[in-house]
Amino acid sequence: MSATDVVETAKGFWDIWGTPIYILGVIVGAILLRIVLHFVVRRIVERIVTGVKRRQRVADTQALSASPLHAVRTVQRARTLGSVLNNIFTVVIVVVAVLLIITALNPAITGAFSLITAALGAGLGFGAQNIVRDVLNGLFLVIEDQLGVGDVVDTGQATGVVENVAIRTTQIRDVNGTLWYVRNGEILRVGNMSQGWARVIIDLAVPYDAEIDAVQERMLQTANDLVDEDRWLPAVLERPEVWGLESISSEALVIRLVIKTRTSARDDVARELRVRLKEALDEMGVKLPALNSVVLSGFDGASSVKGARLTHAAPTTIAPPTPVKKPRATRVKPKPEEGAR
């Protein structure tokens, strides 16, 4: 067989199988490129997280809550950026692969495809602007570090722990376990309860005739005793303060006590302090007044979602309830009737 015959045979083979081979190569190349890019992003995120843990000498992300705050933010931001970058790479690779496959099937379609794209862009411009807004707003949310995976946030539409930040939506798990999908373009404000520090605010109602100075002194002493313990010392950033008499009503006097804490420990410190304040007032003989109603405001209860945080922690062991002994029923002997012997 001459060289000309070989060339003709190869040309005929390529004319028949060239397009399917090209399409298969595009698909395989797109899959491999996506795997490589995701592997690179994952390795970068892991190196950042491992580096932070090594510098803080901890083995678990949950332990970073007692470390400097910027370390926690670095870990959360790295994971969020990794999730967003993986989504962006996937979308770009799929779009480019589809365009290459369409061009291989019909090379003359590129010109018509440009016209179709222009027409669709003009016709769907108003419909697609919400998608574009979602994508751009999601990028700015991550770049500006407004929220991250593991943060406790209030977006107006939902309040809870951020579990995932995608290109178009953000997934938020609330305190009841409901997973909310919030469009990034609809997030007009973000209240992040995991950045910086938090403040425990306890408004304690005491009877109207209580001795204010003695109660305030005992409250401050109880809070200081709590802060000085080794268990609670890492969770507190500043010494407790009594801000004084907050309000006066016909039912009670309200005294405010505040403590500046780490964001992850605010609820734990508040619960422990309430118990100790109640015991301290009982020792003083101060009985808390019976208020007609209790109105919760702000984020009370919203940030109590530590169990949903995306961190590896040991499961909590719940002790079985203590059985309650029922009192024995005493039998009462009937009185003898009059005249009976």
What is the CA-CA span between the terminal residues?
Answer: 139 Å
Task: Please give the count of helices.
Answer: 6
How many distinct beta strands? 8
- Report the radius of gyration as a whole number of Å: 33 Å
Name the poorly predicted regions.
61-69, 293-321, 329-333
Order of helices and strands: HHHHEEEEEEHEEH
Overall average pLDDT: 74
Strand arrangement within the widest β-sheet reads 4-3-2-1-5
Structural class: alpha+beta
Organism: Naasia aerilata
InterPro entries: LSM_dom_sf (IPR010920), MscS_beta-dom_sf (IPR023408), MscS_channel_2nd (IPR006685), MscS_channel_C_sf (IPR011066), YbiO_bact (IPR045276)
Pfam family, one: MS_channel_2nd
Keywords: Cell membrane, Membrane, Transmembrane, Transmembrane helix
What can you see in these coordinates?
This protein is of the alpha+beta class and 341 residues long. Helix content is 47%, strand content 14%. Among the domains are: 9-123, no CATH class; 198-292, Alpha-Beta Plaits, CATH 3.30.70. The chain has helices spanning 3-56, 69-105, 109-123, 125-143, 212-228, 266-284; strands spanning 152-154, 159-165, 169-173, 179-183, 191-192, 198-206, 241-248, 253-261. The strands form two sheets. Strands 4-3-2-1-5 form a five-stranded antiparallel β-sheet. Strands 6-8-7 form a three-stranded antiparallel β-sheet, covered by helices on one side. A hairpin with a 4-residue loop joins strand 1 and strand 2. The model is unreliable at 61-69, 293-321 and 329-333 (pLDDT under 50).
